[in-house]
Write a structure and sequence with these properties.
single chain, alpha+beta, Nucleotidyltransferase, domain 5, Dna Ligase, domain 1, 3 domains, 5-stranded mixed beta sheet, 31% strand
Length: 272
C-alpha cells in the first residue's frame, strides 16, 4: 500500500458487519487505521426467522450512509470454510518454472476442475535460490468455487460497491499476526527451516465457526472449526429453557446475571 492510498476492509459476519479503513503511512510497510464501523444486525443471520439477504442489504445501506467509499479500494473477507487452502513444498526447480509447476500441483490438490474455481498462489517467504534454482520453496494455494465467489460478491454488487480483493479470513489473520505482531522477524533470506522462529497462535471466534491459525511468520497452518458463539447461545437455550434472544443476552452479560454459575455450567461442555 503506497503512501496516501486507502483501503476499506469489510467483513460480513453472521452477527454484524465490521469495517476498517486504512491508508499507507509515511514509512514503507506501515499503515494507519483511520476509521472503523460496526453495524450489528437486528437478528443473527442463521436464526430461523431471519432474512439474511435483507439484513445484509440494510447493513450495507447504513454503512454507505455513514462512510465515504469513493476513492478507496475495497477488500472483503470470506469465511475460511468457503475456500480451500493448500500448502505445498516444491522440489528444486528453476525459478522461472515455478508458475508451471504450481499449476500442475493445483490440478492435484484442488478437488474440482480448475475452470470451476477461482484460484491463485503465493510463494511463502524463506526459500533460497542457487544458480537460478529455487530451493526449499513452499507455496500456498488458495481456491474458491466460482459460485461461492459470486455469492460473496453479490451483496456488494447490489449496493454499488466495487470489490478489489477477496481474501479468506484465516489468511487475513495470518497477515495481521505477521505484519502487526511479528515485526522482529529476520529477513526471508536468513530463514532457517531447521531452526524457525517461535510460532504464535491466534483464534478468531465467530458466530458459527472459528478460525485457528498457527504461524512462525514464514509458514502457516490453519483450520476452520465448526464451533462458534451461536453454539454457546444454543447450549444456554437448551439448559436454561429460555428463548434464543434471552440466551444471547445472558451469554453477553453473564457476570451481571442472577446466577452466573448456571450460565457457565450450561456452556462448559462446549468449552471442554
Amino acid at each position: 500500500m503506497s503512501k496516501g492510498e486507502s483501503f476499506w476492509g469489510i467483513d460480513i459476519g453472521q452477527c454484524a458487519l465490521k469495517a476498517l479503513r486504512c491508508r499507507g503511512g509515511d514509512n514503507e510497510g506501515h499503515i494507519i487505521a483511520e476509521a472503523f464501523d460496526y453495524i450489528e444486525y437486528p437478528k443473527i443471520l442463521s436464526q430461523p426467522d431471519a432474512d439474511p439477504a435483507e439484513l445484509i442489504r440494510d447493513a450495507l445501506d447504513e454503512f454507505l450512509k455513514r462512510n465515504p467509499v469513493k476513492g478507496s479500494h475495497v477488500a472483503i473477507s470470506v469465511p475460511g470454510d468457503r475456500g480451500l487452502p493448500r500448502f505445498v513444498k516444491l522440489p528444486p526447480v528453476e525459478s522461472s518454472k515455478i508458475p508451471d509447476l504450481v499449476k500442475f500441483e493445483a490440478k492435484q490438490q484442488i478437488p474440482f476442475p480448475l475452470e470451476d474455481v477461482v484460484w491463485d498462489f503465493q510463494q511463502m517467504p524463506g526459500g533460497t535460490e542457487e544458480d537460478g534454482f529455487s530451493m526449499e520453496t513452499e507455496v500456498g494455494l488458495f481456491a474458491m468455487k466460482r459460485d461461492q465467489v459470486f455469492r460473496s460478491l453479490r451483496p456488494f454488487t447490489n449496493a454499488g460497491i466495487e470489490v478489489d480483493i477477496v481474501q479468506l479470513t484465516p489468511i487475513a489473520l495470518f497477515n495481521y499476526v505477521v505484519f502487526d505482531q511479528m515485526s522482529d522477524l529476520p529477513p526471508p533470506d536468513q530463514y532457517d527451516p531447521d531452526n524457525p522462529p517461535v510460532s504464535q497462535v491466534v483464534m478468531s471466534l465467530g458466530t458459527d465457526t472459528s478460525d485457528l491459525v498457527v504461524t512462525n511468520g514464514y509458514r502457516m497452518w490453519q483450520r476452520s472449526i465448526p464451533i462458534g458463539g451461536n453454539h454457546f447461545t444454543k447450549a444456554i437455550t437448551k439448559e436454561l429453557k429460555v428463548t434464543f434472544s434471552k440466551a444471547e443476552h445472558l451469554k453477553r452479560n453473564a457476570m451481571k446475571a442472577e446466577d452466573p454459575r448456571a450460565i457457565f455450567q450450561a456452556m462448559k461442555p462446549l468449552f471442554n
